[in-house]
Amino acid sequence: MQVTIAGAGIIGLSIAWRLAQRGVRVVVRDKGRVAGEASWAGAGMLAPGGEFRSESRWTRLAIESLAEYGAFVEELTMATGMRIDYRVCGALELAMDEEEKKALDRPRPEGIVVEEVTAAGAGYFAPVAKDAIRAARWFPNEAVVDPRDMCAALAGACRALGVEIRENDAVARCEGPAVIASGAWASQIAGMEAAPRSFPVKGHLLGYRCKKESLPPIVRHGHHYALQRENGFTIFGSDERPDVWDSTPDPESARHLAEAASALLPRLLDRAPDEVWAGLRPGSTAGEPVVEQMPGKDIWLAYGHFRNGILLAPVTARLIAASIVSSLGRG
Ligand SMILES: Cc1cc2nc3c(=O)[nH]c(=O)nc-3n(C[C@H](O)[C@H](O)[C@H](O)COP(=O)(O)OP(=O)(O)OC[C@H]3O[C@@H](n4cnc5c(N)ncnc54)[C@H](O)[C@@H]3O)c2cc1C
Questions:
Q1: Is there an atom of ligand 1 within 6 Å of 283 CB?
Q2: C-beta of 238 in contact with ligand 1 (< 6 A)
Q3: Whose CA is closest to 139, among 96, 104, 101, 103?
Q4: For ligand 1, is residue 150 a contact (CB within 6 Å)?
Q5: CATH, domain range 2-85+145-199+285-330
């Protein structure tokens, strides 16, 4: 039995790896190149505290995925010998006025670890504009990973187990056994009409070459966030433009983001960015990731991870691989 995976982003590659480890023959087909879309563009925050506001199945899965991440990265590193920039660096969430402070005080879903810190404490963790801070919270378990490292290692681990990865080879229709892991494009595949519709949500990121370790944790304020790679490259984001299919960066959006970056981290980001890029987050009309078997068919759906596909890759791969193996085993 051979399983086709439509999409070589972090979701398709993670599923392919888990399936191949369980002895399933896998072909991954991508309409473009490996990890050329959202999984290339993503910032790589592993931060359920900033993203999941209420109790739900996906909040629980996000917390599980964060807890599994270290082991996932270690297994991948052992399998490939490739370096992955992954660090449990914590996240600092800031409020600059009374309204934002109220939002910080709201109850968090169970399992999200959060601690109170003073403005002075926040300044100790990161080079933020301390005088502007009204309140701050610290999320000690949150982490960052470089999604490009992840995808390169996943592709390497897949190939080492015999997975065939075909680039420039679009899947036109659902023909099982198959996994539709085609991100924002999932609904363009024939046979997907009954499934929740996928759509793009364009987002920009700015990159600044900074001194190593000049921003240890993730910093977030409202819709904005900053994080740093191990080599000091600092990423600031982001915005959301639903239903825009063009991933070319827009200069006006970049200018707005750069202003926000210099207001939040004036000692670090008060200058023009060195790089600007954009990507298409995979939204879905389900309002949450679509990770399930199509009723009565040997087609599995794995798309719609929106702002959290890097975080949710380990748990998505675990769920889909287990479902496929048990279904094929029964068949
Ligand atoms: C600006 C920005 C910041 C982000 N920050 C974070 C973050 O900090 N943390 C986090 O967890 N997530 C983040 N995300 C979201 C994350 O990047 C995505 O949720 C994740 O990459 C989705 O992975 P995917 O594999 O489903 O989609 P993609 O990476 O888009 O992969 C889908 C693949 O399917 C291919 N494809 C499409 N149609 C077909 C077809 N017919 N046949 C074959 N192949 C096809 C595409 O070419 C593509 O390679 C961010 C995204 C953006 C844009």
A1: no
A2: yes
A3: 104
A4: no
A5: 3.50.50.60
Q: pLDDT tens-digit profile of 126-159?
A: 888 778 899 999 999 999 999 999 999 999 999 9
Rounded to whole angstroms, how far apart are CA atoms 305 and 315?
A: 12
Any atom of ligand 1 within 6 Å of the Cβ of 309: yes
Domain locations in the chain as residue ranges: 2-85+145-199+285-330, 88-142+200-283
Rounded distance from Cα 295 to ligand 1 centre (Å): 25
φ and ψ at residue 110, rounded to 5 degrees:
-60, 135
Contact present, 3 and 179 (Cβ < 8 Å): yes
Q: Which fold has domain 88-142+200-283?
A: D-Amino Acid Oxidase; Chain A, domain 2 (3.30.9)
- What pLDDT is attached to residue 328? 84
> Ligand 1 test: best mutation among 89, 175, 182, most atoms within 8 Å of CB?
182
CA dihedral 281, 283, 287, 293 (to 10 degrees): -110
Q: What is the pLDDT of residues 270-302, one digit of tens each?
A: 999 999 999 999 999 999 999 999 999 999 999
This prediction has a pTM of 0.98
Using a 6 Å cutoff on CB, does residue 8 contact ligand 1?
Answer: yes
Among 14, 33, 39, which is best to mutate for testing ligand 1, by the most ligand atoms less than 8 A from CB? 39
Distance CA(281)–CA(293), nearest Å, equals 22
φ, ψ dihedrals at 323, nearest 5°? -65, -45
What percentage of residues in the chain have a pLDDT greater than 70? 99
